[in-house]
Write a structure and sequence with these properties.
Structural class: alpha/beta
Number of strands: 14
Distance between the termini: 110 Å
Strand content: 5-15%
């Protein structure tokens, strides 16, 4: 029989598209509408009032133990349905009270039991319930709903941006992001609806009060006019029934109001309500000990019931002791979990969170290069990186930041890229188990190999095998292994970008180091004459042109001598360069032999100086673009002549013009060496092999 009923239900659902739950909700709503119009018997009213109380209790308990508010996203609609049903029962009970004077067992019981059969007592109880509902619960719930809805809507853009940021960083995938976006939309819709739904509760309470007044007045009139009762008797009879009706309706309304308040005050927290509340209230043993002590003192030294207060004091002491033991166990458990988590993080090949940080220098490579970086596989790339940092420190006098080595599966197996502050600045590709052979220029005999380009200096080269290595070296070729290629390329990139890598913290560390041996000099210069930022600019200017700042003592002494006369860091840089004459001469020139250089036409120097405009922000050049192009074309011609001879082009000109000429030529020839006559030792022999002109 049950099987046939189930099959019949499935057929109905399939044919009509309606489920049993749909029919039940529709019947609930339809009954509420019908009760407004059609009189119902007292026994049916009793059933509906009992159902109303049961539904209200169900809603209250659900709102109490629900994990998060969105688990009851239907609540605003439910609030409307229950309110409408409750008001319809009010109308039906009013009709029965006024017509028959017998509204059923539930109403009569509430009137006689709760009110004690006394009109005054019942009225007072009813008024208290209404006051609690109106003033305490409804008003607070309405305000909380309004504020929650407003803040939820205001926070939506920020939450959406956070989700997009998580997707971009790889913390969550697109599926999880969609789930979070949907949840965010549901939250905004839910709290927006709750802001309006609280008005139902408030209106319900108001309607209940009005209906009660109507019942008392109407019942009294009906008793006097129709039943011939005196006013006192009519008032007692119909007053008790009305109060019973009001209380039987107010109790479910109060429960629903309380449920609404509980739901909106939970906010968006996903937590066990009872568990969190009890933990927060009784989670501190010392608080329980203090309360227990106070209760014991009240029981012993006041006329209050000694047994009662000492009993409660004992309970608080026992609960506090148990909480102490529980907290101790939880602390041990938490510590163990943290250690396990740390161990798991260590075991991870790569922590994704670390990818969010921008490293000063990164070397990323494909999986084919991993053996070169893996010590266990005989790779020495890590050792070479350490040597690079030592070499740069000795050569330029600054500390190179930690170089991050990381494999990247998105690269080709033998490809590597170099990043400075997260931006790719160079790349290269090697052939594993091959060597790179380069002709220094004097080898005439050619060897076979795979043509390529040396990544550091862009020279033509060949990839050769292990078997060809000896022959290539015997012929005079420069043969380099893959790790050396990567290390050399990385070194050159760091040299070219060392000025960018210098930070104020690095400068502060250099200053602190110098202060240990020369405190008077440091105190004289900074911060009185130059700020840390100005010193940083001067040091960056020197590093940008490959000038070592290792002799920081001399640099600071020069700055201390001239910082009082000018605050222009470019001018101070020129003073420092002139003071570092021995170091610059030794770096770019050879003693005892003529050094071929490029000079600049005095006319051109004069034109450059005539176009310099001084401002508060520094000097800038107003030279005509056509004139600049002509000068650079002439410079390019002279540079090519020297490069064809295998010489490094060096431009020498007057001290006052040097920095402006460097600024002009920087955009065209960034690696060009430009020195002034003041930066060259007197025993250095120069030979001009070309002159830069403007024609």
């Amino acid at each position: 029989m049950k099987r046939k009923e189930k099959q019949l239900g499935n057929v109905i659902e399939k044919k009509t598209g309606l489920k049993k739950t749909d029919i039940a909700v529709a019947a609930y709503l339809l009954a509420a509408v019908v009760f407004f119009i059609v009189p119902i018997p007292s026994w049916l009213l009793d059933i509906c009032l009992a159902l109303n109380i049961a539904v209200a209790l169900t809603v209250l308990i659900n709102s109490l133990f629900v994990v998060e508010p969105l688990d009851m996203s239907f609540y605003p609609t439910l609030l409307l349905l229950t309110t409408l049903f409750r008001i319809s029962l009010n109308v039906s009970s009013t009709r029965l009270i006024l017509t028959t004077g017998s509204p059923g067992n539930v109403v009569e019981t509430f009137g006689s039991f709760v009110g004690g059969g006394d009109l005054i007592v019942g009225t007072i109880v009813f008024i208290i319930i209404l006051v609690v509902q109106f003033v305490v619960i409804n008003k607070g719930t309405e305000r909380v709903s309004e504020v929650t809805a407003r803040f939820t809507l205001d926070a939506m853009p920020g939450k959406q941006m956070a989700i997009e940021a998580d997707v971009s960083s790889g913390s969550i995938d697109e599926k999880e992001a969609k789930r979070q976006r949907d949840k965010l939309q549901e939250e905004s819709s839910f709290f927006g609806s709750m802001d309006g739904a609280t008005k139902y509760v408030k209106g319900d309470a108001t309607a209940g009060l009005i209906i009660t007044v109507i019942n008392i007045v109407g019942g009294t009139i009906m008793g006097v006019a129709r039943q011939g009762l005196d006013i006192q008797s009519a008032l007692n009879k119909y007053g008790v029934l009305t109060i019973g009706d009001g209380i039987s309706s107010s109790i479910p309304s109060l429960l629903i109001s309380l449920a609404t308040g509980l739901l909106v005050t939970k906010g968006t927290k996903t937590a066990d309500f009872s568990g969190v509340m009890m933990k927060q209230l009784f989670g501190m043993p010392r608080v329980l000990y203090v309360v227990g002590t106070v209760l014991a003192l009240l029981g012993l030294f006041t006329p209050l019931n000694t047994v009662l207060f000492l009993g409660f004091a004992a309970i608080f002491f026992i609960v506090g002791f148990q909480m102490s033991k529980t907290i101790g166990k939880e602390d041990i458990k938490t510590q163990v979990q943290e250690e396990e988590t740390q161990a798991e993080e260590i075991r991870k090949p790569e922590n994704v969170v670390s990818l969010l940080n921008v490293d000063p220098i990164e070397l990323e490579f494909g999986y084919g290069i991993i053996p070169l970086a893996d010590v266990n596989q005989g790779g020495d790339l890590l050792d070479r990186v350490v040597m690079i940092r030592r070499q740069i420190a000795l050569e330029l006098g600054t500390v190179v930041p930690i170089i991050r080595l990381r494999d990247n599966i998105q690269l080709n197996p033998n490809q590597y890229i170099i990043k400075i502050k997260g931006v790719q600045v160079a790349e290269g590709e090697i052939l594993f188990d091959h060597y790179m052979a380069m002709n220094p220029g004097y080898v005439e005999e050619e060897i076979t190999g795979i043509p390529t380009t040396e990544p550091s200096f862009h020279l033509p080269a060949l990839w050769i095998t292990e078997g060809q290595r000896e022959r290539a070296e015997s012929l005079g070729y420069t043969v380099v292994d893959p790790p050396s290629i990567i290390a050399t390329h990385l070194t050159e990139v760091i040299r070219n970008h060392i000025a960018e890598l210098l930070t104020r913290q690095d400068v502060q560390n250099l200053v602190n180091n110098l202060k240990e041996t020369n405190p008077a000099l440091v105190d004289e210069l900074t911060p009185a004459e130059m700020s840390l930022g100005d010193i940083e600019k001067v040091l960056k200017n020197l590093l940008a042109e490959g000038i070592s700042i290792r002799d920081l003592l001399s640099i600071f002494e020069i700055l201390a001598d001239h910082a009082g006369n000018t605050k222009d860091t470019d001018v101070l840089t020129e003073y420092v360069r002139a003071g570092l004459k021995p170091a610059i001469s030794a770096k770019f020139f050879d003693k005892g032999v003529p050094n071929q250089v490029i000079t600049v036409d005095p006319k051109v120097e004069q034109e450059i100086m005539g176009s310099v405009k001084q401002t508060e922000q520094g000097a800038y050049i107003t030279l005509d673009p056509e004139k600049i192009k002509a000068i650079m074309d002439s410079l390019g011609t002279e540079i090519k002549k020297m490069e064809d001879q295998g010489k490094t082009p060096i431009v020498v000109l007057s001290p006052i013009v040097r920095m402006y000429f460097k600024k002009i030529s920087e955009d065209y020839y960034s690696d060009l060496i430009v020195v002034s006559y003041n930066e060259i030792e007197s025993d250095i022999e120069l030979q001009s092999v070309g002159m830069v002109s403007d024609s």
